[in-house]
Task: structure prediction
Amino acid sequence: MAREASIENVAEQDLLALAAKALGSFGVKPDDANAAARILVMADMFGIHTHGVGRVASYGERLRIGGIAVSPEIRTEKPAPALAKVDGANGLGPVVGMHALQAAMAAARECGVGVAFASGSNHFGPISPYSYLAAQEGFASIIASNATTTIAPWGGSDARLGNNPMGFGIPHPGQDPILLDMAMSVVARAKIRRALELGQAIPDTWATDRAGRPTADPRAALDGFLLAIGGHKGYGLALMVDLFAGLLSGAAYLTHVKSWVDNPEAPQNLGHFFLLIDAKLLGSPTWLAQRIADFGAILHASPAADPAHPVIVPGEIEMRKFHQAEREGVPVEAKVMAELRALAG
Amino acid sequence: MAREASIENVAEQDLLALAAKALGSFGVKPDDANAAARILVMADMFGIHTHGVGRVASYGERLRIGGIAVSPEIRTEKPAPALAKVDGANGLGPVVGMHALQAAMAAARECGVGVAFASGSNHFGPISPYSYLAAQEGFASIIASNATTTIAPWGGSDARLGNNPMGFGIPHPGQDPILLDMAMSVVARAKIRRALELGQAIPDTWATDRAGRPTADPRAALDGFLLAIGGHKGYGLALMVDLFAGLLSGAAYLTHVKSWVDNPEAPQNLGHFFLLIDAKLLGSPTWLAQRIADFGAILHASPAADPAHPVIVPGEIEMRKFHQAEREGVPVEAKVMAELRALAG
Result:
């Protein structure tokens, strides 16, 4: 009851306008504010509230103290027809992300494939919104970003690697796309905190203690480092994301990425990687739609190990929430709505 | 002693010639036999002996019964400047793989980025050799293939997904590239077999029993399915590899992929995905070499949790073995050498 009372359902357009106005209160130009609001509102529509409009206040904090540039002059270079480099000029992450998405789309329209490397950026929200927008235009995508260091190298004992997210999108003509958006840790830190509150041990595959040793003690784990999925495999994936999104893009990487929390006033120089492929060149929309429907049907037909949890295809949960938000409004915490309204004035 | 006695060290060029001649004995044309031998010999040089010249006999078995085409007419189409589609015509996997690698390289030379989708293929060996060859020419790469179904969907209870490999390569001008080549299961089936032999329980994150329930019993696990890294995350990754390498390429996917073991005479119609990016367009060789050296140094400097196991960067072990094989010859089991010599006649 308390939980229900604290949620407001807000019409998508109203939330977009409110979030953009709130960002505008920090001096962000209308086009940029609209672009950033679009990504954050989509995050909430997908149910990824940790990356939704609740971020406006923390983005604003950094805009206010100069950690993020209010009026960045974002520049796009084309070293080759299918390749773009976007200098985000320390702008808001979602603004830089949308520039890079557009640059990769333009290159993919021209060449069939487009890659954009972005540098000089900040936290760009979740990946699903970008993958969704790409899929709506008929593009398959691989998108990734580096992040503040929170993970120890496999076998190491201090934080030198981000919990770098990687996302994939596959267009399904006339239907919802397949979307996967994942970070490389086994679990989020919040899950370890919950175990501590409940006085429960955790699997020793979730995290290490401060010395880099696997631990089942949630307290030691919170003092230590998240483990990546599959041990050395997830370590390798997180590192490859940083190589593509950070090192090759010309952005910061590994420990060169400044912490948002410890150095809020310093530019982070995060980097992103966008690969888009024009799926319309691979076959007709009917061909693609039939194959993707068949693909999903094969997976769904695997008898569930637990009948209460049928097999799902990545993105199904997010798209269900997305359509519900379109119909019934976007669920936002009342506390967040109050913040946004105060900022929008 | 028994182990040492069973290994021969063979000069790289001699092994290449012998493997090509052995493949030729099945009717494979010299160019194709050389291309396939090159990939298999490199696999042995990297220490990936499960995917090395020991495969010649099993490839040959399928060539002999018509499961793999002896003289495929491989066709490359260019739907757009940066995009190639390669129809492997049921040729040997490494032959189709090399065609796709060349097509992606040509597109990336022209456009900065090149993608090749291959269909009508077979087991194409490990990914590291392709990533290495791409890196030697200055290309960063993401390469993937689908495979025979051995993994149950997350929460499902029958094999509908391959243990699909994905590989990454980053060129390091004047030095060894960074290489990551991984399948999506937590462990290989062989590791579960070893636990059974030793009478040991296994972590319940490695595999499920036949009903799709996590199990610590190696016997039940061998009757069941390998689990993917990170549960639903590795499931999502394996599925994305199949979507790019299988579905978008026009190849078979999921359960449409025929089993090599159960249907050796049927074309598998496997698919591969090659993305190449010309890293020379992103900065000078000096710029790139300095950044990659710094990247490696940062990771290596993380104090090891276990001093006997310092932190490594993916590809270091493989490249060490590679150079040792260049100097001292490629280590091959005497049994495999005898097979190759018998075939080469």
